[in-house]
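**Backbone geometry record:**
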Amino acid sequence: MRTPDAAANAASDAAAPRPVRTWFITGASRGLGRAFAQAALERGDQVAAAARTVTPQDFGGRYGDRLLALPLDVTDRAAVFAAVDTAAEHFGRLDIVVNNAGTLSSGMVEEFTEAEARAQFEVNLFGAMWVCQAALPHLRGQGSGHILQISSIAALGGFPTTGMYSASKFALEGMSEALAMEAAAFGVKVTIVQPGGYWTDLYTTGLAVTAPLEPYGPLRAEMERQWAENSIDSEPRLAAEAVLKLVDSEDPPLRLLLGSMVYDLAFDISRRRMDTWSGWEEVSRAAEHAVPAPGTLREP
């Protein structure tokens, strides 16, 4: 049985207002980024909304000083550092950093030019990396914070025509796993968010397409048919609702899947990989036998 004092304290805690938090969100002018920003503002938080083109009017012009619109190209490292510092100075702190800016390059691996391949990584990997580097001094200094890396279903596995996009998201997740361990000592949390399909403009204005090579015509047509028949897209607000639950958690996960389709696919891919590893276990184990470092053995 709880004592009257304990009951009073519990009631007081329950009645305590949720603290206002400050978000820094890239790619905030549209799609998932806009939905995240809108959800944060609607609950009373403060948002630094960063995008190539963004204005307060994009959000109805009704949030006053709680919204800071920051035009930003995340591939410009110096501009990223300046934008993050501006947001921290404007609001006094940063609490939640969302690396949402991204582009999609579609094409067979053989079709990519060097410039096209590098451009995919400049936004999806390096852009997120610059934001993390810029935000970490602020988060470390206050001993708290939560970085959300918006990844993709494409990071679960590569598929024809999404090779470079998948590669950039695989790289983002590898970097983020290391970052999570490095930042934990300073009270900073990192979560990799893996969304399924949402109705955004990633497939339109955010899409770059390679010049097609004729031999891949049949495979390309088949993939287009599969995407058209099996695409399951949802409203971005559903992803935003999930992200609000994520940032409210005292113990957020390293990874969060968004959507039933991506949830089932993650388990299916993982099981198939485990089956393959198991089938080749003997070969795998035979490839290892510890020996002293070369040159350390001495003749008797």
User: Anything to note?
Assistant: The domain at 18-260 is CATH 3.40.50.720 (Rossmann fold). The radius of gyration is 23 Å. The CA atoms of residues 18 and 44 lie 9 Å apart. The mean pLDDT is 90.
